Amino acid sequence: MLKSTLLLTTGLTGLAMAAKADITVMSWGGSYAVSQVEAYHKPFTAETGIGVNSVDADNPATPIKAQVEAGNVTIDVADVEYSDAIRLCDEGLLEELDTSMLPPAPDGTPAEEDFIEGALTDCAVANIVWSTIYAYNTENVEGTPTTMADFFDLETFPGKRGLRKTAKANLEMALIADGVPAEEVYDLLETDEGVDQAFAKLETIKDDVVWWEAGAQPPQLLADGEVVMSTAYNGRIFNAAVAEDQPLEVVWDGQILDFDLFVIPKGAPNLEEAKQFIAFSTDTERLAAQASWISYGPARLSSGPLVGLYSDGETEMAPHMPTAEANLSNALVNDFEFWADRDTDLNERFNAWLAN
Amino acid sequence: MTANSGNDAFVVFDHVQKSYDGETLVVKDLNLQIGKGEFLTMLGPSGSGKTTCLMMLAGFETATHGEILLNGRPINNIPPHQRGIGMVFQSYALFPHMTVEENLAFPLEVRGMSAATREEKVKRALEMVQMGEFGSRRPAQMSGGQQQRIALARALVFEPDLVLMDEPLGALDKQLREHMQYEIKHLHERLGITVVYVTHDQSEALTMSDRVAVFNDGVIKQLATPQDLYERPDNSFVAQFIGENNKLPAKVESREGDIVTVALPSGKACQALAVNCGGTGSDTLLSIRPERVRIGAAEDVNSTEGKVLELIYLGDHIRCRLNVHGNEEFVVKVPNSSDAGQLSVGETTRVTWAPEDARALDML
Amino acid sequence: MANLADARGNGPAPTLTTADGKPLREALAKAERHARNRAFFLVLPLLLFILITFVAPIAQMLHRSVHNPAFSDNMPNLVAWFEENPEGISPDEGGWDALAQDLILARENKTAGLVGTRVNYELSGTRSLFTKGARNARKLEPPYREAILDLDEDWADPALWQVMRGASSAYTFNFYYAAVDKTLDQDGNIVDVDENRKVYVKLFTRTLILSLLITFLTFILAYPIAHLLATLPLRYSNLLMIFVLLPFWTSLLVRTTAWIVLLQSQGVVNDSLVATGIIDDESRIQMIYNQTGTIIAMTHILLPFMVLPLYSVMRPINPSYVRAARSLGATSWTAFRRIYFPQTIPGIGAGALLVFILAVGYYITPALVGGSDGQLISNLIAFHMTNSLNWSMAAALATILLTGILLLYWLYDRLVGIDNLKLG
What we know:
The complex is a heterotrimer.
Chain A: H1 2-17, E1 23-27, H2 30-48, E2 52-56, H3 62-70, E3 77-81, H4 82-90, H5 111-114, E4 124-137, H6 148-151, E5 161-164, H7 170-177, H8 185-189, H9 192-203, E6 209-212, H10 217-224, E7 229-233, H11 234-242, E8 248-263, H12 271-281, H13 284-290, E9 297-298, E10 332-333, H14 336-355
Parallel strand pairs in A: 1-2, 1-3, 5-6, 5-7, 8-10
Antiparallel strand pairs in A: 3-8, 4-7, 4-8, 4-9
Helix pairs in contact in A: 2-13, 4-14, 7-9
Chain B: E1 9-19, E2 25-35, E3 39-43, H1 50-58, E4 65-70, E5 73-74, E6 85-88, H2 100-110, H3 115-128, H4 144-156, E7 162-166, H5 174-191, E8 194-199, H6 202-208, E9 211-216, E10 219-224, H7 226-231, H8 236-241, E11 246-256, E12 259-263, E13 269-274, E14 283-288, E15 294-295, E16 304-313, E17 317-324, E18 327-335, E19 348-352, E20 358-361
Parallel strand pairs in B: 3-8, 3-9, 6-7, 7-8, 13-20
Antiparallel strand pairs in B: 1-2, 1-4, 4-5, 9-10, 11-12, 11-14, 12-13, 14-20, 15-19, 16-17, 16-19, 17-18
Helix pairs in contact in B: 2-3, 2-4, 3-4
Chain C: H1 2-9, H2 24-66, H3 70-74, H4 76-84, H5 93-109, H6 112-122, H7 127-135, H8 144-151, H9 158-167, H10 174-179, E1 182-184, E2 190-192, H11 200-231, H12 234-245, H13 252-263, H14 268-275, H15 291-314, H16 319-327, H17 332-360, H18 364-369, H19 377-387, H20 391-415
Antiparallel strand pairs in C: 1-2
């Protein structure tokens, strides 16, 4: 505690004295990055005078190993998925974060208790809860798909499907569509039969799939009519539907919840500023503010009641949150340990399956 | 040569015109007959249309108007490979990826000749140009002169009746060029083939040809044997282009038979042979060959004073530049005989030429 | 020099000396050495540059493909135990002991993730064994066998011990086995991997075939273009050349995206075909996000690399060669086939080699427009570089690719001759 305060104060005095360095934050681009710029970066710069460069990647976890191993780290803060945060931390590629640097909730609840369970790890601080859902273009789909099974039903709902080009989420959704209850999905996926079953289900739509990689792609593919349904990050669809008035509808059945977490790559050039940024951005008020720019749930319990209207001033955010009661009926929480363990293996199998 | 009667003409250009851009004619109404076995040279400055004529004959250009006949057959619509005409290019155009033997065998091969026949003919052709040992060389491994011989052999190996040569010696040095001129001439005589030869080098044309067609600006200015061309040019262009020439502008004063009396700008009069000049009062250009002017000879009709401006010793003769009738470029070749050494620069001497050696021609 | 040669030829002739009396031969050698040194210093920066930016990374890559010390460096007790017990995959008490010590060590050094990841490469699902094991290492008490099996029974899996034995040496060929769809079974035999995990051989083959096809397509397209460029008057050909080079000045991403706009099923091409009634709205052609997309986009992007070498050999070909052939009796086809074409072979060779080598390593375009069946081996190398973070695997794949290219290069040299290559 003393040590960290010391660090913080020396960091702060260092800041006050030296010209304030800009920090680089790598995130996922598109409307999500916009929401972070609005809710975190701008107020942070206004308060501390530290500039923030926003950099995009299809997945910010991927450049970290290369940068750390090469000893040429340019990213100060990265926004990564849970399993990646665990994996990178285990491999010693991330700075460890002391949760004591995080401010308590306004009512005095310490940060460790204010954050949702699992939102704080050795190396990462969660900022949002998001989910992988599927969405459809109401103009190109006849009828109303309501379940995950409908996504795989080419007969009732003909047309191309968009899927992220990775094993994660696709395998879970395939099993849910195949009638596996959400709570049994990961147990089943631990077995070879379960994996076979998931791939067999994916096989049924393989010829009609357009694979996407960047989170900004699905709304575009849906709007262009390139696909009629696509899996997507729920916030992207919300923004396309509400802010851009696209005829897109989210199906919450079988949604897969996950955290996005801030991490600091080992050897980040501006470590103290980066920590300062994370502490600032994940306070109660900032997390709630972020939710007014995109429909991702704040990772602090104390932020929940503060979430109100979308930045257009009229759309109620609550029903669009993945954590809304109505949306959780058949939801699955991403098992980070499963994916930290099996990501490579299942993606290899996924690649093999794709190539065949 | 006697082969210009028309009936037995081997190659005929009949009112041939050629234009590339539809506006200017590079060949204007060309009429030309070439006899079988003749060596005809197309001579002219670059851009005079001579190469275009050759290309039309070879089939690489088509005449815009008129007809070309080969052996009595119109060939305008016959593609080049069916014309059976051998051709030698200035760049030799030996195929760089083939050996000498393969180059020579190529025309035989495309004619479907058997390997044995090919070998036989290639061997003979190589011997003909004294290159028997070079069969397995590549063109790049040979000198320019050697390549030239191979190119010649290749154009002859399939025994064409007509061989076209497009400045074939242009890339060789002077000595080799002269040597090759004789060789080509001898080959022509030995084989009895018809050769159409294009060059801009007048001495080459005079050395080799039976007849020379002097081209300028798309027309043939004169078609004659080398001797006629030099001795009896029809017009000032030919007189100027072939050999050395002194020209004196003048005005026709009177005419008696073939002899005209002309007034020179210096005010003096002079007699000349009326070749290509108008009637009384018209402008003319006198053409006098340097070797036909005598210095210090007895007074005659065309004698005049000339001031020696420059003397150049050239071994067999002395080249003497004088001011004659106001022309400071008047050149006289004084044979290097025992009585020659008397001239000195600055001295004024008498120059004389016979009236028939001064040809009154058109103005340029 | 002539004198020197004479002197040498005549045996013990008087030694030639320079004006100031030094032996000429030595003076000459010194002067030459001086010139050589100076020349060497001139190329030294380039030499260093190549060493640092090219040779060193490739050497490192080769090393990495057979060297992965993540396990051997961090599990010293197990490594020692494996050395003492060269056989067997069912550990004795010493083995369990070593494991327990190493897990404690891993906890202290925070290396459990590294070790787990290394083992996980070869035996999926074992990563969490190590991370969990290290997390609970403090609670471990002898007898360790029971204590560890209490944590997770999977620790007893003989396959796990087989993999750990393999990983206990930093040097391994396992990544190469994996790169050709092979694996080691529990007895250490090389066997095929499961049918539905075979991917690398297939992708190597596909990369080879697609690259050859793309090379051929660029050749077919580039040959007439280059010929046109070479025969047009310079001022027109310069203009046309700009069109050929235009793609070079455009970002690769922009070009690839442009193809997406053109070829997607709601794209320009399909829309035009539907509008003109050639196809109906339901049967729009899938031209992108598959192999066709990869082939079209890569052919376009690599086309200039074929056009330029071809152009550079065609431009200096004197038109009189073809004329000579025609005058010698060859039809225009024969003249092309026998005379023109052979002279362009150095350009074809250079272009084909360039395009092929570029195509084999192409990555962004197939990633964007390749969909599932238009992926190439480089996409998997990228996957291992950035996603799975299995750099040893990426290095093994890259090494195989490099070896393949060198092999083809050697073959090319044998068949065509590398000195026959003309890059422009």
